[in-house]
Amino acid sequence: GEGARDPQHTLPAISRGPSDLGAVSGAAKNGLIPLNAEASDAGVARHDKASSSPRAAASGTPLRRAPTWAITANSLAFMCVPRAIPACFAQTGWTVGMLALVYSSVVTYDTGLVLGEVCRLRPKIGSYPGLCGEALAACAARRGWSPQAWRDAGAGCCLVLQFATYYLTTVAELIYFEQFFGQLFDQSRLCQWQWLLVAAAVSLPVLQLPTYHETRWAAALLGLLPLAINVAVMFYEVLLVRPWRCQPGPRYDGLLGVADGGGALSGGGEEALSNATSPQGRDLNDVFLGLSAFAYAFGGHGFYPEEIREMSTPSAWPSVMNWTYGVAIPLYWACGIVGYYAYGDFSWSNINLNFPRNAANTASIGVQVVQEVYFILVGNLVMMLDIEMRLGIDPTVCCSAPPDPPPRHESRPTPPTQPPTPHSPATHTPTARLRSIASEDEPSAGRS
User: Fold this and answer.
1) Which of 48-62, 116-130, 209-223 has the lowest mean pLDDT?
2) What is the pLDDT of residue 86?
3) Is residue 382 within 8 Å of residue 306, measured between CB atoms?
4) What are phi and psi of 262, to 5 degrees?
């Protein structure tokens, strides 16, 4: 629908027209939202009738209910995949992989802070497509073009990309899901498409969680707890086998077939070149595949504005970033270096395939089945929230306590009016009338 019924509720939205703005500058005439560095946490993001953004629910219930720890748990649980880093190194080699990891660690942390600052300065922006539309509108206004046309085009194109990205992310997680099922039940006769149906059925109850605020415990129990268990299992399996002592040991091919070394971190010369036979060989296609995998490992920015939209204290977003990267980056470096040193170019993206089939590995696979439920939930949540708000559905209604019923006013029949009778002044007073009523209620035996 076009806007919300109540212009006073506090939900973030994309500004769509000049009626949102004060006519205090040329930017207001061009339909741009003025920067507001003084925006408070309590009163941010008021949505007016002129806005056609889907970022507000029809009933006006605010989305800003999530504590900082809830958003931190969601951000960290979705982004942090440290056991995938050895496979990234297997595609890029040591040199390019190290550079990519340094670059990704620094740049994505900085861009996460930038997204938070933009959302703070423009509190009506409640989504990544909305942020993209406002950025293009600002650029268009500086060049004398139509800001509204560029705003709509940018938001629309970004929305298509966002939906495509998270739809395909969910598809990838479903494939991981059925692969883990296949590893756990390797004697089962179920085919891949049948396991996909099982994965969808298992995920369906968790998909009913409507917002990031409600997913906080799912993030903690289905995301972070399995993450801790899987990292511990990885280091246990590496120390149990110590693959670098095996013969033949791990191999490390350099870029375009130039060896980084064989069997150890250091090595060179003709012996290293002759011993560094990779199971796959590496060329530019492999390197670009590895770089895309590094980008995937630092995912999550695509719904940072949606997470900020639900924070009860949006100014605490830097704390979310500090905790997310303070935990994820050390794990990335530790797991990436240890895993690639242990398995070299034989590192699988599903690193459980590198482990021996023992009880710890089986437990890790089972835990990842649980973790995939959370990944599927978050990938869908971005899309479902946008669809529900565009349809005018308040996603928080099912989580709110039902309102108290209005007090019932029972009407009692009015006693018929008796015709007036003559009374003496003494008996017509209120005291005399009360005594008369009391005497009528007394039993007859007590009367004289």
Assistant:
1) 48-62
2) 95
3) yes
4) -130, 130
**Which helix H or strand E contains 262, and what residues bound it?**
strand 259-262
First-last CA distance in the chain? 80
Predicted pLDDT of residue 113 = 96
Express as a percent the part of the chain with pLDDT over 70. Answer: 69
Q: By three-state DSSP, how is residue 251 classified?
A: strand
- The token pair that represents 157 in the structure block: 């194109």
The DSSP call for residue 66 is B
Secondary structure element (H or E) that encloses residue 139, with its range:
helix 128-142
CB 96 within 8 A of CB 287: yes
Rounded Cα gap, residues 49 and 21, in angstroms: 12
- Inter-residue contact 120 to 320 (CB < 8 Å): no
**Could you give the 3-state DSSP secondary structure of residue 129?**
helix
pLDDT at 231 over 50: yes
From the CB of residue 124, how many other CB atoms can be counted at a distance below 10 Å? Answer: 26
Residue of 152, 125, 57 lying closest to 387 (CA atoms): 57
Residues 6+ apart with CB under 8 A from 360: 233, 236, 237
Q: Would you say 223 and 79 are in contact if contact means Cβ atoms under 8 Å apart?
A: no
**Which residues does residue 253 pair with via DSSP β-bridges, in sequence order?**
259
Residue among 171, 163, 82 nearest 375 (CA): 171
Question: How many angstroms from the chain centroid is the CA of residue 114?
Answer: 18
One DSSP character per residue, 269-329 reads HHHHHHH---SS---HHHHHHHHHHHHHHT--GGGHHHHHHHBSSGGGHHHHHHHHHHHHH
Measured CA to CA, the distance from residue 121 to residue 73 in angstroms comes to: 24
SS3 131: helix
- Short-list 66, 394, 381, 400, CA closest to 203: 381
Answer whether 69's CB lies under 8 Å from 77's CB.
no
CA–CA gap between residue 302 and residue 373 (Å, rounded): 20
Strand partners, 66: 311
The residue assigned the tokens 């990335």 is 332
Per-residue pLDDT of 383-402, as tens digits, reads 999 998 888 888 888 766 66
d(CA 181, CA 195): 7
**Cα(93)–Cα(298) distance, integer angstroms:** 19
Six-digit token string for 27: 């930017």
| Strand residues in 89-210 grouped as ranges (E) | none
For 392, the token pair is: 């005018």
Q: What does the alpha-carbon distance between residue 133 and residue 118 come to, in Å, rounded to a whole number? A: 13
Name the residue among 371, 379, 355, 334 with its Cα closest to residue 82.
334
